[in-house]
Amino acid sequence: MRAAPAVSLTVRPSLHWQAALALLAAAAVVSTGLWAWRRGDAASGGAAVAVVALALHTLRAARHRPALGLRWDGQSWWLSEPASASAAAGGEPREGEVELALDLGSWLLLSFRPRGPGRRVARRRWLPLQRAGLEADWHALRCALYSPRPAAEPTAAGGRRRS
Asked: With left for phi above 0 and alpha for psi between -120 and 50, is residue 154 left, alpha or beta?
């Protein structure tokens, strides 16, 4: 079976993704506001304020999200962040696992979970991708996502390398 080709792309926040996120945030705010208004007590008012604050924080974070580098080298997935956005990693690429969470044809939602020492619970990064702007790499990306993983190569000690 053929291995998936190597692919390297830059993941930038898209305006379509930000618009969809804004619509979801607005729906959450409106539905919580209506619920709080019908209940009419202090607890529901506090919940509505918390939902508004969370929606605003989410939209602000999505708007200021830096571009990320995503790479498949034929063996592993790598994610690189700008040095300013990742003080702990210092801008160095991190090896990890990519999982396909949602595939809508020309839209993908990927989950990247870093691998390696130093973290008990690895921080998952959600990567919304759309075909627009990535046309040259889109087919190779989908091949890398859907192709089977290469078998682990034996080490010199006769054991198997972790994949």
From this structure: beta
Candidates 7, 2, 137; CA nearest to 76 is: 7
Higher pLDDT, 76 or 15: 76
Domain boundaries of the chain, sorted by first residue:
7-13+67-146, 15-63
Listed in sequence order, the residues at least 6 apart from 139 whose beta carbon sits closer than 8 Å to its beta carbon are: none
* Amino acid (one-letter) located at 110: L
Q: Computed over its alpha carbons, how large is the radius of gyration of the chain?
A: 20
User: Do 105 and 139 meet the contact criterion of CB atoms below 8 Å apart?
Assistant: no
Query: Residues 11, 70: contact at Cβ < 8 Å?
Result: yes
Question: Residue 63: which H helix or E strand, with range?
Answer: helix 42-63
Percentage of the chain lying above the pLDDT 90 cut? 31
Alpha-carbon torsion (82, 86, 88, 92), positive or negative: negative
Statement: the pTM of the whole predicted model exceeds 0.85: no
